[in-house]
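QUALITY CONTROL LOG
STEP: pairwise intake check
CHECKER ROLE: data steward
CRITERIA: each record must contain a sequence immediately followed by its structure tokens, with no blank fields

ENTRY 1 OF 2
RESULT FIELD BELOW
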Amino acid sequence: MIASLLMLLQAAEEHHEDDLGTTIMHHVVDGHELELPGTVLHLPSWPAVELGPFVIDFSPTKHAVFLLITAVIVGAVMLYTARRAKQSGGERVPGGFAGVIEAIVLYIRDNVVVANIGHGGEKYAPFVVTLFFFIWVANLLGLVPWGTSPTANISVTAALAVMSLVVVEVAGMKALGLRGYSRTIFFWPHDMPLPMRLMMFVIMTPVELLGKFSKPFALAIRLFANMVAGKFVLYSLMGLIFVAAPLAGWVFPWLAPVLMSVAFLVLKLFVAVLQAYIFAMLTSVFIGLIRHAH
């Protein structure tokens, strides 16, 4: 929390902003610079690539940097846990940190993936477990001093949601076959007269198709909104210190914002794992639903 206060002060000094809202917005949104203790590191700028009417900028941003950090952390943790499990020979659960990670993996596999997908759901466990740990670590990086949450970027959450959509639809094609999968889009009730079939086909087919895209949309918006809202609330609470201090001195105005910020930081620790769990749970539910569409 102290680091977050220093970050607010540093951002205000760097940009010479007296408006607290502008300072908070600068810290929350993505950018081409990293805030470090006492300085700001400007990331390199690369030439944009023009593809017809589209211009794609591959220059690194702070969210891209923290996405890479997230991937490195998750990869290192999983490799370490797998190595410890291999050294134990499968006869006993590895102790310490590796044992905790293995217990979480087994819980996600048995109580989230298999419980919602059913028979054959084990093969989807690696994807769902990876989603869970990746989102969890990305959320926690926002609580690290001078860190940021990549999941507070709609582009990141949308990319994760699109990957879930692809896995869900491919799982449906493999389980139902092409003909069975087409029935999840084109509604054709065989127990109705032909005029009613045509009417239901025209009305329900767009609804079914829209439903496929509404699921990843909900995944992306839910994660993005929760992480962004958490940042705004936390920095707004800490910003109360600077707003109230000139009015009542620098003694008492610290107490209430600091206590509220500490309580909210504890809540964010819970929210970080909760949002990762919800994303993994809903992905498993969507896979299970389409595999048993009949």
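ENTRY 2 OF 2
RESULT FIELD BELOW
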Amino acid sequence: MHRATLIVNASAGRTKNLQTLVPALMQLLEQRGISVNAAETTAKGTAHKLAAEAAEAGCDAVFACGGDGTIHEVLQGIAGTTVALGVVPLGTANALARNLGLSLNPVEALRQQLNFAPRAIPVGEVRYATRDGEATRYFIVMAGAGPDGALVYSQLGANKSRFGRSAYYANAARLFLSRSFPPFRVEYRSSDSDEWLELAGVSAMCARVADLGGILSRLTRGNSLLETGLRLIVVKPPAFIGLPAWFAFSGVRLHGRNLWLKTVRVSEFRCTPIAPAQRIHVQVDGEWVGNLPMSVRLSPGTISLLMPKPEL
């Protein structure tokens, strides 16, 4: 690594004093002989643009200094390039950082990654509906439709620096207890077949990481960033039974006995509303992006991610 860029989200949930943190991060890189510059985001979408500019300028690595949402934006700017993605955890959940075994101390997390190696990993690709037509996003943590999309949508405009885990869980409980979640159509092709299968679901989720953290930690056990397939989790209707059962059975590690849960390895899947008037929210890496219909597959391209070196 010779040239690096720090993309800093000043509004991230665990942002420290940037006037001291950013110089400390830059100093650590410079001490290792790495030329570095830092750029601060100013609005939603800025990190995407800054990452693309860093890649075009010939940077070897871009460090997303923020939460999973910041990582998501940086990913859009460097997916398909050879630029390595690094993580400086400043967010609330920090799911990717936790799955990489990173310290939640920003400086220590950066220090760890100086001993990591870039590895090419597959990333997910989501196509979804917007007011302007179909759009595409890449994801590295998770994508889903239904309650998780509705939860993320309900937080739009919230000050995430004040929206910690406790408030997040309280908002989730309020939402799930006060709203009904209609079923939608889920079609998928399993990894070993070209045949499309169909079922109804009130939630469809695909995660690339094994631990989402907190009370969500056991919902996606068994996943891996290195997998060359997708693991689809569908919660079956009715929502008032299926959703609580998902948490309850996951909590005691009895996923296989949950009659309201379907877990399958797929090459791709798509979700569409059963009724045209239904508005089912879609989230990608914890960011609300639009509504169904959506389709998900692994991207033909990859991302180069700084990861622990494999043990010999």
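INTAKE CHECK: passed for both entries
DESCRIPTIVE NOTE, ENTRY 2: The first strand starts at residue 3 and ends at 8.
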